[in-house]
Amino acid sequence: KDYTVAAITFSGTLSDSNVKKHRDILETWIAEKNLKVTGAPKMAGYNAPFTLPAFRRNEVLIPVEMNK
Fold first, then answer.
1. Reported pTM
2. How far apart are CA 56 and CA 11, in angstroms?
3. Across-strand partners of 17?
4. Nearest to 23 by CA among 15, 68, 52
5. Does residue 11 contact residue 56 with C-beta atoms inside 8 Å?
6. Are 5 and 66 in contact, with CB atoms under 8 Å apart?
């Protein structure tokens, strides 16, 4: 099934505090755009564990419904 997500990309680790910080930023953006959240946030990390944190690419993804 196709769906749309709002996403924020960030570097560093996937620590609880780093994920929460960026999830909060994304949730604020979603509210400002009046989008409807349709699912739970997910986190994604795209690099090997030995990649230095400054060079890691991570995302928080939140499913949303676009305004019609």
1. 0.90
2. 5
3. none
4. 15
5. yes
6. no
